[in-house]
Amino acid sequence: MTPYPRADALMEMLFPLWQLVIGAVVALVLVVASWRLARRGPSRMGTVLLITGGAIVGITVFGILSARTV
Asked: The whole model's pTM is what?
């Protein structure tokens, strides 16, 4: 039993708001970083896309393997 159930209810209502704020900040940083990389030229963009793609595949594989062991 929690000592302050009202505080838990308030946090449950605010939780989606914090997710929205964090998502908006991440999207803004992604747009700014993409714009700066695009200005630097296609050779750097190609390298960044390869590194990002590899990271996405690696994280996905790790997530699938860790979910199967649980």
From this structure: 0.47
Say if residue 20's pLDDT is above 60: yes
Q: Which string of DSSP letters, residue by residue, matches 21-51?
A: HHHHHHHHHHHHHHHHHHHH-HHHHHHHHHH
Under 8 Å between Cβ of 52 and 58: no
Q: At what angle do helices 42-69 and 5-40 cross, to 10 degrees?
A: 150
CA distance 44 to 49: 9
Q: What is the pLDDT of residues 22-53, one digit of tens each?
A: 878 888 888 888 788 778 877 777 788 888 88
